[in-house]
Amino acid sequence: MKLLNLEKVRDGKYLKCYELTYLNKAGREKKYEIVSRSELKTPADLGTSMSGISIVAIMDDKLLLLKEFRMGVNRTVYNLCAGLIEPGETIEDCVKRELYEETGLSLKRIIKILPPSFAAVAVSDIRTQIVIVEAEGTLGDHTSENEQIQAALYTKEECQALLEKEAFSSRSQIMAWFFTENAFERLDKI
Asked: What number of other Cβ atoms are within 10 A of residue 4's Cβ?
C-alpha cells in the first residue's frame, strides 16, 4: 500500500473532507475518503495533530457517563465526557472546562493521561487523548442549546445492565466494561 496524493474536496466549519489516492497491494490506483479537523497539505500531515480529549471520570466509586443525542447516528448513546482542545488551552484546562460544561462537576485530580490515539482510523486522522480523572461536585446542566446531554454517575452493577441493552460509543463501552471488571480498583495507587 502506498499513499500517492491527498486532495481537499470539502472545507466545512469543523471538518474537512479529503480524497486520498493510493496504490493497493495489487498495484492498482484507488481512491479513499477521510475527514480531518486539520488543514492537510501533504500525506505526511496525516495524523500529526491532536484535537481533543475523552474523559474517564470516577466519583464516589461510580463512573460518569453521558447519555447524549449524537447527530451522526441520529440517536441517543452513552458516551464519555469529551471535547476539543481550544487554542492555547492545556489538557488540564480542557478537562476542567469540559467537565463543568457537560456535567457541572469539577476536576479533583488527574490520575492518568494516556498518549494520543486515533479516534476513528477507518474514516479520520483525528487524534485525541484519554484522561482518567477523579471528579467532585454536583451534577448540573451547563450545555449549550446545541447539545442534548444527561450526565449521571453509575455503579458497576448499573454499568453492567447498561452494557447489555444500551447503545454506546466504542470508547465509553470499553471503559464501562473495564469499570465493571474492577480495572479501576488500583487508581489510588497510581
From this structure: 11
